[in-house]
């Protein structure tokens, strides 16, 4: 992955929630743009959103690039909320990317900026642990309360 020439450390970490049912989908979200079309806003995460989404339908390829994709749907309401890049194409891998392969449509999710341990400042990707317990029930309960507000 080509992340050396571009930095994402100063981006805010977001909680991503389904717009249809307010289910927490990820506590490690980042605002992003589609590499193949920078006019399209998305959200992404680096860790598979377990217990929140599942694959739906068949794999497909985009018209703009050669990435192999598969849609993901919210487990609570069943609506398609994004897709997983199953196999990224060479063009996208060589582009400035954040290494995230779980993408969420901005029309299907909303974000809430996470706060750091002080509870005052926004949590930034540069301060986020590489591996975080995404399935910790306590964290998800707090996040769910945030989504409802």
TrEMBL record:
A Pfam match: YPEH2ZP
InterPro entries from the UniProt entry: YPEH2ZP
Domain of life: Eukaryota
GO cellular component: cytosol
PANTHER family (alphabetical): PROTEIN FAM72A-RELATED (PTHR31841:SF1)
Family statement: Belongs to the FAM72 family.
Name under which the protein is recorded: Protein FAM72A
Protein's organism: Panthera tigris altaica (Siberian tiger)
Lineage, opening ranks: Eukaryota, Metazoa, Chordata, Craniata, Vertebrata
